[in-house]
């Protein structure tokens, strides 16, 4: 027996919306009907597919089915668009979940929306995730594509080089005068207050590892906002490692100081996507390659 499309749609919508109630509203049926369809699907496959948590999450078997459901939906939407019958989608658009690191989102990624063909029946569902951790979402099947710092393709995916994001160490001139007035600025790094994005952020560790004879950094303030992070550096809360594209104007205007000229951290970024024939993913990939021209070193 093949999988019933109504059952598969109910399952995928529960995952997408986060609850049976929200899925019922989306599909214009009762929560009881959604629950019954999911139970029938689980009975048919002989597997528990959903963890009844808040939000609802997929089990390991459910992750495999979720990926299949997204692929089926995308192929159907592309087929209807190609044969000139997009009205059969009922006005719906194909959701394409993509994981993007916050620095890319704040510098160059948003241009992708402008570069996609007008009228394309696609909605990008952006998930903010660290470039070192987005591979997990791909592996789980939660996203169809990801901007990642890993060059190794995830199983079932392809990987293409996008370019290099350069990070520079910056501080306000007043802060630098107090903490980096000595000749050995590298040695001063372990005493001067530092700003980090969050506890997943390893960029400072990688940057410091490039420098000789430099101890562990402390103390650290965490500010999980890219614009807020740069603003805090300008106000003298600490020094921080920031994308070159985001602080270049501040450096030119004298609001920020590159405290270690010639020292930087280059992070190569790659576009990972599901290995499947998809005109939509092809178009998104092409837009990505255009957009990186303004934010990455290519």
How many helices?
A: 13
Q: N-to-C SSE series?
A: HHHEEHEHHEHEEHHEHEHEHEEH
How would you name the CATH homologous superfamily of the domain at 165-267? Periplasmic binding protein-like II
As a percent range, the share of helical residues equals 40-55%
Mean pLDDT: 87
N→C terminal distance: 50 Å
Under CATH at level 1, the class of the domain at 165-267 stands as: Alpha Beta
User: How much β-strand is present in the residues?
Assistant: 15-25%
CATH architecture classification of the domain at 165-267: 3-Layer(aba) Sandwich
Low-confidence stretches: none
Overall radius of gyration: 23 Å
Number of strands: 11
- Overall outline: elongated
The largest pleated sheet is described as: 7 strands, mixed
Under CATH, the topology of the domain at 165-267 can be stated as D-Maltodextrin-Binding Protein, domain 2
Helix-strand makeup class: alpha/beta
Structural account:
This is LysR family transcriptional regulator (Chromosome initiation inhibitor). Belongs to the LysR transcriptional regulatory family. The chain has 298 residues and is an alpha/beta fold. Among the domains are: 1-65, Winged helix-like DNA-binding domain superfamily/Winged helix DNA-binding domain (Arc Repressor Mutant, subunit A), CATH 1.10.10; 165-267, D-Maltodextrin-Binding Protein, domain 2. It is 43% helix and 20% strand. It has helices at residues 5-17, 20-27, 31-45, 60-82, 102-109, 111-115, 134-140, 173-179, 185-188, 203-209, 226-234, 244-252, 279-291, and strands at residues 50-51, 57-58, 94-100, 122-128, 145-148, 157-171, 194-196, 220-222, 240-243, 257-258, 265-274. Strands 3, 4, 5, 6, 9, 10 and 11 form a 7-stranded mixed sheet that branches. A two-stranded antiparallel ribbon has the order 1-2. It has a two-stranded parallel sheet with strand order 7-8. Helix 1 (5-17) crosses helix 3 and helix 2 (20-27) packs across helix 3. It is elongated, with a radius of gyration of 23 Å. It starts with a helix and ends in a 7-residue tail after the last helix.
